[in-house]
Amino acid sequence: MGDTVQITTEGGEQFFKHYYSYLDTARQNLKHLYHEASKVVWNGNTLNGKMAVDRFFSDLPASKHEPFSLDCQPIASPVTIPGQDSPDPMILVSVMGFVRYGHLEAKPVILALCILLVS
């Protein structure tokens, strides 16, 4: 169990660093973090597929994220992909913080994000 927690924590932290770096400074790279069949729900808006996610994020105003809490949990997959001996593990990444959209003097809003990482 110790190895699972360590791998989960390290994987979640690495994803976290890349995700917010891309979101604030290099949005064109975000699409590389999503699978073709990815599904994103953002404030009630459902985005289906990598290209829809890419278009949505590219249309958002500039942002500055200030996360203050990160939690990474291993999730056992209930599904085995055909041709594999065992299901792929997943990581649930939960983030809390603040985000500013537009100019840096904008009032920060609360950020609560949960992402399920699937290999």
Q: What's the β-strand tally?
A: 5
Share of residues in helices: 25-40%
Strand order of the largest sheet: 3-4-5
What is the CA–CA distance across the termini?
19 Å
The number of helical elements comes to 2
Helix-strand sequence? HEEHEEE
Poorly predicted runs are none
Biggest sheet features? 3 strands, antiparallel
Question: What structural class is derived from the secondary structure elements?
Answer: alpha+beta
Shape descriptor reads: globular
Beta fraction = 35-45%
Q: What number is the mean pLDDT?
A: 86
User: What radius of gyration results from the CA coordinates?
Assistant: 16 Å
Question: What keyword list fits this structure?
Answer:
two-stranded antiparallel sheet, three-stranded antiparallel sheet, 5 strands, alpha+beta, 29% helix, globular, 119 residues
Q: How are the SSEs ordered, and which strands pair?
A:
Layout: H1 2-25, E1 39-42, E2 45-48, H2 50-59, E3 63-75, E4 90-101, E5 109-118
Description:
β4 and β5 (109-118) form a beta hairpin. The chain has 119 residues and is of the alpha+beta class. 29% of the residues lie in helices and 36% in strands. It starts with a helix and ends with a strand.
